[in-house]
Write a structure and sequence with these properties.
Layout (H helix, E strand, L loop, with lengths): L4 E4 L3 H21 L1 E3 L2 E3 L5 H23 L2 E4 L3 E6 L2 E6 L3 E8 L11 E8 L6 E4 L6 H15 L2
Antiparallel strand pairs: 1-4, 2-3, 4-5, 5-6, 7-8, 8-9
Helix pairs in contact: 1-2
């Protein structure tokens, strides 16, 4: 059995945003709180607290959903597998007609690939299969794997 190259789904953005919103909410609660009779009273009847709490809940739910999905891409010698907790989609290299790359609109960074989306045209599918490289760990290496695949398929 061949060993695949694994690329796991990145959750860094969701962790960072959840932490920023929680930190902002705590700081805001401390600033809005008052000292009465020697104790600290937190003001919860504030629309800004509700607004921040909505963002915290939204990012916590998104993080939880993506953590449960546990998405990853596995690249074997003859196939590509897009896998999550609920199933696996296997794409044989023979089923790929061609590979296209979309340019990245952000500023170029050496540690990241210069392309944002890889589009695979498959034999049995009308639409392209889109893979966003920035969503996976080690995106530059993943980009290089798709470059190798495109050299084979785009001849």
């Amino acid at each position: 059995m061949e060993t695949p190259i694994k690329y796991k789904f990145k959750l860094d953005f969701y962790y960072n945003m959840l932490l920023v919103y929680l930190l902002f909410m705590v700081i805001y609660l401390v600033i809005r709180g008052t000292f009465e009779d020697g104790s600290f009273q937190i003001v919860l009847k504030d629309p800004i607290i509700y607004f921040i709490a909505i963002f915290v809940i939204i990012f916590a739910v998104i993080l939880l959903i993506n953590k449960i999905k546990n998405g990853e891409i596995l690249i074997y010698d003859n196939r590509l597998e897009i896998k999550n907790r609920f199933g696996t989609k296997t794409i044989l290299f023979d089923d790929i007609l061609y590979v296209k790359f979309s340019k990245e609109k952000r500023k170029f960074d050496e540690s990241k690939s210069p392309h944002k989306i890889v589009r695979l045209k498959l034999k049995r599918r009308k639409r392209f299969l889109r893979i966003r490289l920035a969503d996976y760990n080690n995106e530059n290496s993943l980009y290089q794997e798709f470059i190798k695949l495109s050299r084979i398929k785009n001849r």
